[in-house]
Amino acid sequence: MDLTWSDDEQAFRTEARAWLEANLAEWRAGCGGEPASGDTRTGFAQHLLWERRLFADRWAAVSWPERYGGRGASLWEWLLFEEEYHRAGAPPRVTQNGIFLLAPSLFEFGTPDQQDGILPRMAAAEDLWCQGWSEPDAGSDLASVSSRARRVDGGWVLDGQKTWTTRGAFCTHLFGLFRSDPGSERHRGLTYLLVPLDTPGVTVRGFGRLDGDEGFAEVFFDEAFVPDDAVPGGVVLGEPGAGWRVAMATAGSERGLTLRSPGRFLATAERVRALVADVAGAGATATSTGEDVETGRADPAGGVWPDVRSGTGAEDHGGAAGPATGSSPFAGDGRARVSAGPGGPLWRRAVDAWMRAEAYQLHTLQTVTRLAAGEKAGAEASLTKLWWSELDVELHAVALDALGPDAELEGPWSKGWQFSLSGPIYAGTNEIQRNIAAERLLGLPRA
Amino acid sequence: MDLTWSDDEQAFRTEARAWLEANLAEWRAGCGGEPASGDTRTGFAQHLLWERRLFADRWAAVSWPERYGGRGASLWEWLLFEEEYHRAGAPPRVTQNGIFLLAPSLFEFGTPDQQDGILPRMAAAEDLWCQGWSEPDAGSDLASVSSRARRVDGGWVLDGQKTWTTRGAFCTHLFGLFRSDPGSERHRGLTYLLVPLDTPGVTVRGFGRLDGDEGFAEVFFDEAFVPDDAVPGGVVLGEPGAGWRVAMATAGSERGLTLRSPGRFLATAERVRALVADVAGAGATATSTGEDVETGRADPAGGVWPDVRSGTGAEDHGGAAGPATGSSPFAGDGRARVSAGPGGPLWRRAVDAWMRAEAYQLHTLQTVTRLAAGEKAGAEASLTKLWWSELDVELHAVALDALGPDAELEGPWSKGWQFSLSGPIYAGTNEIQRNIAAERLLGLPRA
Amino acid sequence: MRFAWTDEQLAFAEATRDLLAKECPPAVVRAAGDAPPGGLDRTVWEGLDAMGVLGVAAPDAVGGLGLDETTLVPLLEEAGRVALPHPLVDTAAVAAPLGAAAGGRLVPTDLGGPLVACAADADAFLLWHPPPAPSTPTAIPASTPTANATSRPGMFCTPSDPGDGSCTTFGEGDGQRGALYLVEAGAVTVTPVATVDRGRRAGRVAWSAGDGELVNDDPAVLTLAADRGVLGTAAVLCGLAGTMLDLTVAYVGERRQFGVPIGSFQAVKHHLADALVRLEFARPAVARGAWSSAHPEQVAPLVRQRDVSMAKALAIDAAEACGRAALQCHGAIGYTVESDLHLFLKRSWALARSWGDRGFHTDRVGRALEALDAPAPDAPSPDTATPVAQEDP
Amino acid sequence: MRFAWTDEQLAFAEATRDLLAKECPPAVVRAAGDAPPGGLDRTVWEGLDAMGVLGVAAPDAVGGLGLDETTLVPLLEEAGRVALPHPLVDTAAVAAPLGAAAGGRLVPTDLGGPLVACAADADAFLLWHPPPAPSTPTAIPASTPTANATSRPGMFCTPSDPGDGSCTTFGEGDGQRGALYLVEAGAVTVTPVATVDRGRRAGRVAWSAGDGELVNDDPAVLTLAADRGVLGTAAVLCGLAGTMLDLTVAYVGERRQFGVPIGSFQAVKHHLADALVRLEFARPAVARGAWSSAHPEQVAPLVRQRDVSMAKALAIDAAEACGRAALQCHGAIGYTVESDLHLFLKRSWALARSWGDRGFHTDRVGRALEALDAPAPDAPSPDTATPVAQEDP
Questions:
Q1: Could you tell me the pTM of the whole model?
Q2: Residues of A with CB below 8 A from C153's CB?
Q3: Cβ–Cβ below 8 Å for D332 and B329
Q4: What is chain A's mean pLDDT, rounded?
């Protein structure tokens, strides 16, 4: 066991950190202020500038070979980069579904021509890929895909509908599963196709996610003819009819470490701890200037909201100076401060969440050690997905409780809260993950 | 809406309280100290003395008609009695399974002869009834009962085995479900029989519950002939072959309010609050005599367990005098005290649990109002069972966390904790209750 | 002892439910979120006014119905069921019942008119009578003294319409605490703010208390008014929770995956059963809060405070449990603004932390319990002079 | 970076597992709970001693193997898997590694002999070498000063055998804090106490520190020793959790209700999947705690404290989740002493609150984080002199 980073890895981290610091500032300045959400049309364009900046200095896909725009970085270095990326507060990757979901399948199942033709443009954010798996009637039950691909001379004719396609309205290409054997059922007879969205007969309609951003799309296929050479190396990934196996490899990536690296949650956990510490500190002034702390305490019936302003231990966290922040007095400065102070309920929840983020980091280091030793990732990815998705909800719940009535304001925390709620749903609901964990890891009998 | 008690009800409460206070003291004195657990042979005998004391003054079954030893009390008065009973710290009713599970079925399905012959001796704790439902292969799936009852001239011949029969080793009679139609399946062909345990061919073997007390028994039937007149009025309750319907009426009682009245949990909640307040007060002295509180706080790295003795807000709960209680310093006097003090994590959990107990009381008042208006109790009992069983576990978990390392000592709290863990299992597991609630109350489709 | 709404109360709630079902379907809630300043549709509000809902708890001397919280609470739960985008809690629960306590001047004489009142997020609230009487005074009880109170902007409100000046809200006071002021409407500035629940049409408020006239500084009166806001919000949360559960039950009965309705899966059943439990045990607590509020002659203020805070705490739990279960059981479709679920979900997030959050009310219950314990550490005697409700619900 | 046990460590654990499977089946644990004073069977203890397990982390100069926590922790998890009724954490994790820090006199020279050491529930512990050397000194680090410390009995211990005098435990000090004493064994009185886990054979201890001789009062040494007790207990909890999960998986695969194995029900699957998640994320935290403890040259004491406390906190969660799921999925049969489950369940309750409970260790992690934040409030630079483990696991 060795939990130290090598000098080379340290150097890699240092380089990444310096680059991120300089380039984030430049990019933000170029946006003329805080960029819009990457799930809006305006914000997507801004985020593309960031993606191209990453690509220009070979940070877009660090683990890829250099010939595709990467650095041939190890999984360890990839983890370090992710950690630095999130610690720096860099934006969500709008290219994520291509780089983290399609690319692993391309590396495993793609022909050299496909890899050479697709990957560099993906890294450069020239081709923008979205995922076309879910359909109106195929969600958790992905194998019930009914969109059809009919083989014709020189290509495929597509019919049907995909939905909940993330950022589909802004992308240029879709990778998806289509039923190519009309008589087939379930996992059989599906083909994994790579489809330019400007193909005639393909219509994309964006629609609002929970937060209202146009982050989802429906994609309609109406006798859309996709020529075999619509993407370099051909539009079929893997063998025709063998799409399920290719897709499952991608599903493993999505649930596992490549989509949600620990660095993301560690960074959030640190921000939550800082927010809670702010609340603990901020109340001190407001209360210490109130003249009726003792009264409120001695007589809970007195005053309008006596207990709002008293709060236990009101005296022992003083010290922070400056005016109170904008928190409503209803949040109970005294109370919130005690709850957020060391040993208080909110403080403990923040520490707890930090531990869970740290445990995810450790679990990942263990997984990467196994992968580095040549083992394959398996159903353990289900445990990982359960862990980070529940952690993310709790991290944001703590933040909202720290913000009190301010929590409903539009802002990074309310946005993050809403996004966190998608975690237990996407990439296979947590109910599906529990089934997988119970059946494949514990060996419980199928129903 | 009227949430006040009438003068008569108040008087009833006053009488009950006075009686309980006087008689509990006398009974305990008669036991020569704290009585043993009612689930041990010694303790059961002691508890029978208590039961007979209750009966002598008509408190054994207050809601029964006077001719059976009751007071003809209303459900409201029954609630008041239960509240006073638990507030006074009176012992668990070892006659409970007869009085609260069998008797409601007797009132609904029994003949006058059965009622007249069985109920007074039950109230007097002369006949002691245990429940014979579960079998080794019929637990959650109660309808798979396989113990057989064969009709013969003048009676029934029983074969098979019952198990998890509470206090079976100390009881005189069993009520249970037997398959009387050998070709029948599931709910059909079952007969509800009343069986003296001294019947030749019946063998009872007591065994240990989780806490080691001999609170469970297996009951074996080996060609046991039960004459029709083995109990007054006959051994069949309801019609032969219609046992399931009779049993389900009892199941409703068990899950609903008659087995676990709110008074039980309100009393526990108050004791938990008091325990937490004790912990909050007790630490004050120990810490205030420690000279290194500030040191420990300023330098978490210093000392063996610096943070054990520091703890936030160490100064602001002082006042309690006298020597520290037996808590280990490892529990962290300072920390535990802060956690248990107003606004602290443990204090909040105690308040939360109190609210849940109070909500159970309110829900029950609502239910009794409906019953008083002639409505029938239905599947709502599943919600009630989920609520009180989870509440009871949490109440005891808070107590154990307040006790810290003392929690593992044998005593009322560790005993109560172990008993609370049976709540989500007995009387239909909570998984079964959730199925019932979802299917019968929400109308979700059966699998 | 009889713990149930009366037939009259249930009938009033049913009539309100009928009106809201007709006049406030999800499309109206969506429209409220999208409407520009000045563009809020008032049809449902006027309908509620015509039915007497706004003045249920206003003294009959001024044209109200002179009823109490036990009539009002079921109506507010109905308002929650449809995510009504108008400030009904603020108006009907907080403002209207103040009556003479506000010097008689705050009670609208024409309840048929466009009374709008609003309070949110603070122990301070403001009542205001909108145009066509632009100089009608606004009442603001001052709040926590802070060093910079007079210049500090207030928090959000749930204005009926910030754009046309008919918005009302609460603000912070001038260094005095717990006092009810009349302030000229013109002295109040409302700036709309972006919150996750656009249907609330929230605004940030600034005002100068120097323009105010003190009309009441009795803490008991102001605490009572604030408690009504807490109680009303608890009722609304129960309504939101109920609708989220209903929407989900309907959806999981229809939605098929793996060849069966997803509602037949045990995981879905158990999520929803757990949510239902939370709701069914919160509702009696809210009802008790109503009774305790409505019977000051039998219930000490401290007990009332305990009871309304407990109502809010358990209603928050119910809304949270139902909301989480609803979203998870809807799956991806619930995670869009195309499904109606989000209208109720976002309202429940906002209200869970308005009028005091879960931690605040837990602490308030705990402190009330300790204060109630204090005079008689041993069990209270049944024949004591203590109000009955103090020892029994 | 390589986060995995070595082949040697795994092989040692497997050999230990084989020994324990053979010599410590549930019958042996039950017998330990039932044995009269003096009657504890020592077969498994002697087997562990013969394998070198007791002295794994003792200096090789005194006959130990001179290895560190990364070898020891997997062995302790194995001990947890069988609910070993002997004080292995106290002996192998706390006592044996102290070595020269205890003045050289505490380290048994004959590791083949009946070394027994014990510590529990406190920042104080006691090492003791039992008969046939009745006057062998006992070491007790004194604990929190309290007004009546010298007369105050210590807390529970996990004696190997309270009856025959070979019990060891910790006691409370004489008003001095954080010091290691040698005390004559005869000055210690052990009174067995009844705890829910009879297999622990716990006792209450009284002693008079006046008989002691100070041998070490370096807080760093004593904190390190106590941290090893915390870490070892965390490892044992993981082992207990794993066995409870395994027993349950086996049971629900066999037990049939409604015509199918109960393990095919989604509710059962999801309970056990959630429990498995807790366990699989606790184990890496315990492993990291071992590494941090084993590398003092790279890991600052504060970081080690953070890491062992985090290990204990997550191991408590794992044991609690696995225990609750196990009992619920076993149903009534689990709620008896006839099933073996209770042996592991009760041990897990006792250990969850020994060596610091969940709240204690959460607070300790939080305080360590704040102390580590303090010197560099902005993100630490990668090329700082801070030990690597401080910023990376």
A1: 0.89
A2: 326
A3: no
A4: 86
